[in-house]
Design brief:
Elements lengths: L15 H27 L8 E2 L1 H8 L3 H13 L3 E4 L4 E4 L4 H25 L2 H20 L2 H19 L2 H8 L2 H11 L7 H16 L3 H25 L3
Antiparallel strand pairs: 1-3, 2-3
Helix pairs in contact: 1-3, 4-6, 4-7, 4-9, 4-10, 5-6, 5-9, 6-7, 6-8, 8-10, 9-10
Length: 241
């Protein structure tokens, strides 16, 4: 029997375990900062236009500049901040009315395609998941939980893209995921466009998909996005970031 020196892992190069542990720790710190800032921006707790100062973030989270910079780069990829991460610093994105129009015009095409393809490929387990979404939406409406509804809304649309089986479509929809969530939060606060109205539209999309009526599913999904867009533009008429 071969004696293995204490503290040495068989088959692992010397120092590899420590290097991996340090790397995992760095990634976990980056993820912690990234997720915290992401949620605060999307929920509006960090307002549009506010600068995110590297030194302040280091003090707040108790980490070095490396995970802060990596987290800010990820937020920039999400479209939530703008500016140069290293030198100029970044600010929370301020979505303009023109930005909103572009985002929803693209979403109308993408969401319509996702609904059409989902209707063509729907499986029994997918139907169960869609019905589960509707049930959770109903609970949010009953409790008046707009925040949770807004978060679930985009999960719902992403799920339709996944069911479509088109990986590039999923990526395309994800590209506008967080900006769309910011805009959705504004539209759901309008009296004419609350969760109850949104739920009714979601139900029509789901019914068409379950019936495997691809053209109707696409039509209802596009109508849903257009109605949301109109509500967001009404919000811009009366409010500024």
């Amino acid at each position: 029997m071969t004696n293995i020196p204490f503290g040495v892992s068989l088959g692992i190069p010397h120092g590899a375990t420590m290097e991996r542990t340090e790397k995992d720790s760095l990634l976990s710190k980056t993820d912690m900062v990234y997720r915290a800032l992401q949620e605060e921006i999307v929920e509006g707790r960090i307002p549009p236009g506010e600068r995110l100062v590297e030194r302040n973030l280091m003090e707040r989270f108790g980490v070095s500049k490396t995970p802060i910079r990596e987290a800010l780069l990820k937020l920039k990829q999400d479209g939530l901040v703008e500016g140069g991460v290293v030198h100029q610093g970044v600010s929370v994105i301020r979505i303009s009315r023109e930005d909103a129009i572009e985002i929803y015009d693209l979403r109308e095409v993408l969401e319509g395609l996702a609904a059409r393809k989902a209707a063509e490929r729907i499986r029994e387990e997918d139907i169960e998941k869609l019905n589960s979404f509707l049930q959770l939406f109903e609970e949010c409406v009953e409790k008046g939980d707009v925040r949770k509804y807004a978060k679930m809304d985009l999960d719902f649309h992403k799920f339709l893209a996944v069911v479509s089986g088109n990986k590039r479509l999923v990526k395309a929809i994800e590209r506008f995921f967080y900006q769309a969530r910011i805009l959705l939060r504004t539209s759901l606060t309008l009296p004419s466009r609350g969760p109850k109205v949104s739920l009714a539209e979601h139900r029509k999309v789901v019914e068409a998909i379950i019936e495997k009526n691809a053209s109707l599913a696409e039509k209802k999904a596009k109508e849903h996005v257009r109605n949301t867009k109109e509500a967001v533009l009404r919000w811009f008429e009366n409010t500024q970031w």
